[in-house]
Amino acid sequence: MKKQYYAIIDIGSNTMRLVIYLREKGGKLKEVENVKAVARLRTFLNDDNTLTQSGIDRLVSTLQSFQDVLATYQLQEVVCLATATIRQADNKEEIVLQAEANTGITIRILTEKEEAYYGYLAVVNSTSVTTGITVDIGGGSTEVTYFKDRELIEAHSFSFGALTLKEFFSKPIPSEAELKELRHYLSEQFSTLPWLCNKEVPLIAIGGSARNLVQIDQNLKEYPLAGQHQYKMYDTDIKQVSNYLTTLKPDKLSKVEGLSKDRADIIIPAIEVFHSLYQIIQADCFILSRKGLRDGVFFEQLSKEIGSVLFPNVLEDSIQELITDYSLDTKQIVHVQYLTRKLFQYLKENSLIHLDKQDWKLLKRASYLCNLGEYIDAEASAQHTFYLLANRTIDGLMHKDRLRIALIASYKNKTIFKQFIRPYKTWFLKEERKKLRHLGAILKFSYCLDATRRQVVRDITFDHQKDTLVIELHCNGDAAPEEYQSEKQKKHLEKAIKKEVILRFITS
């Protein structure tokens, strides 16, 4: 099948970006190229609200440089969007005409409502958050939305952005008085929207400034997991980063790990926006979404095919994407899930292990991905499974849940489990670490019952007495390989239930 590529150009007030997407088998779009140019068009906006000819020339020359990249792909579609600076310019028609005449690229200027909407659409289709407030701070505007049960309720665009807010400061590192003035201004602005106040929901941030805030926080904490999408912070974390940056000398600011040089002069006002908004809404956490405006536009395009702007299940789609990418055997997955469910239910109902609905949810998700690492190397499958799941973004999963699933799906034995969890030991209480180990043992045992992927073990029944659990495996053929593997693995199940496990393979 011929590869389908799509391109989007995002003309922001601070940066311009070209992103190329490849459409995958499942229909989703995967980013394959990301080219950024720091155009700072906002600085070319005159007092009379017109973009200078120098600004238009900067825009055109950047688009021309993007064309060299576009020419290397056979593209299905090219979309070019402009936001606050072009939208607010009184000579926007002239800007669009010159750009098209010199490049052949047609610019679509987004309204304030459209810009906010696409940000919301990206968040609800790439995270597990069902109710929250989004914020996207650009160079010249800041968009906020409120959504409930994944439906957009309110949206607003403020006419200030990171570039305009830095004018509150006379130097890159602000004085305490300047910070106080900015905080007062932001509080007044956000308070004009009653629907923002005291919502006590997650605050989800998108855009470059939010990514930089997260990168700085991760570096300060020496965060052991890869990825930023769905990374969680709290009020004290945002304040700590702010305090760290505002105590630096100006020449040190641009050298901060995780901070892009082109954002060094605007990161502090951007962080103040996040912190002020966090306090106004009394947020329960701050979450980064790496999916934003550009992704929202393509989500709308895809919605024409599925008949809804909302993907029915973000996480299920992401898991299916992994199954497709790593060529996992769906027939085996379904069968092992059936066996795992029967074993889980029996252990739960007979109180052999304390288990609940949430445990089954984790176990079921992990069961889809148990053999992921075999794609790279069968001998070190557990190690590769853990690394891939722990360090790959999975839409719909927060970082801690992603780690839980990685630990369960990669379970081989207690020693390797301890090796995997060591860098994250403080993330879980002792009881939860033990629970994750037990869930891993259940899943690994179930997979042993289909070691040859023939579904030869058709059903499973149980009988337990004081010190033993008899598991009868009903087979429709020779199950010698399954018997060998499960006999090897049953000791981990025995430790979990504190009983001897006797396996009886019965051929019908």
Automatic annotation (TrEMBL):
Signal peptide: none annotated. Gene3D superfamilies: 3.30.420.40, Exopolyphosphatase. Domain 2, Hypothetical protein af1432. SUPFAM superfamilies: Actin-like ATPase domain, HD-domain/PDEase-like. It comes from the Bacteria. Residues 23-304 form the Ppx/GppA phosphatase N-terminal domain. InterPro entries: ATPase_NBD, GppA/Ppx_hydrolase, Ppx_GppA_C, Ppx_GppA_N. Residues 316-464 form the Ppx/GppA phosphatase C-terminal domain. Belongs to the GppA/Ppx family. This is Ppx/GppA family phosphatase. It comes from Gracilibacillus caseinilyticus.
